[in-house]
Write a structure and sequence with these properties.
Blueprint lengths: L1 H26 L15 H5 L9 E5 L2 E6 L5 E6 L5 H8 L11 E5 L2 E7 L6 H12 L4 E10 L2 E13 L4 H10 L3 E2 L7 E5 L8 H8 L5 E12 L2
Antiparallel strand pairs: 1-2, 3-5, 3-6, 4-5, 6-7, 7-9, 7-10, 8-9
């Protein structure tokens, strides 16, 4: 009888221990959003979970603020260093698990080619911002910028800004661009200039346009966008 009681106590102890283990395990479940699955990415990308605050992008035009909202999550624009073949460009993109397709659609700009890059499904705006930082950190990628939704249209932020100056204001614009590590491209003789930015600049086209606000000799400044229907 004593032996049976001892066995029952051992069994009850075992069951109770298992119950405590299961309870503790269930209590440690992640209550927040789960990481994006099937996307090979660095820890910074996975930490940018849904529910975090996202950047609200905006710029000043004609003394009015234009809001672009948060970034579009399905594609970005990049520019590659000169001299790379199409195969080399694809190999660079293939390193990133958040890139959906290594082949990128080309977009012709005054300063060269941009590439429309499709992203993996399931990313949120915060993760796209981190992905852009990782792309911009690659020395073979000279520019990386987001798209934005504008109704039924997509606005891709290019590496160019359109700047109108007062008569004789080219040299002043060149000085402002130099301070921003940007390049003023040759003009067709009008007072409208295209300013090229890259990853060495102090910011993208939005930042440069905002930087020019209130500067002497600047009539108007606008970021240049690639415009297409939403996909």
């Amino acid at each position: 009888m004593a032996l049976i009681c001892t066995d029952m106590k051992k069994n009850l102890t075992l069951y109770f221990t298992c119950f405590l283990f299961l309870f503790a395990f269930s209590s440690c479940r992640q209550d927040g959003p789960a990481p994006i699955r099937n996307v090979k990415a660095g820890p910074k990308l996975l930490r940018a979970q849904a529910g975090s605050s996202f950047t609200n992008y905006a710029y000043i035009s004609n003394q009015k603020q234009k809001s672009l909202g948060s970034v579009y999550t399905k594609q970005v624009l990049v520019a590659f260093a000169s001299g790379l073949s199409a195969e080399q460009e694809q190999a660079i993109l293939a390193q990133y698990g958040f890139v959906k397709e290594a082949a990128a659609e080309q977009v012709a700009m005054s300063s060269g080619q941009l590439h429309r890059v499709a992203l993996a499904d399931g990313l949120n705006p915060g993760q796209v911002e981190v992905a852009l930082q990782e792309l911009a950190g690659n020395p073979q990628i000279t520019y990386a910028a987001p798209f934005f939704m504008n109704g039924d249209e997509l606005l891709g932020l290019t590496n160019e800004a359109l700047v109108t100056v007062e008569a004789g204001g080219k040299e002043h614009l060149q000085e402002l661009a130099k301070q921003f590590n940007a390049e003023v491209l040759p003009s067709n003789g009008s007072n409208l200039y295209i300013v090229k930015l890259d990853d060495n600049s102090q910011g993208n086209a939005l930042a440069f346009v905002n930087y020019l606000q209130g500067k002497k000799g600047i009539v108007q400044a606008e970021p240049d966008f690639v415009v297409s229907l939403s996909r």
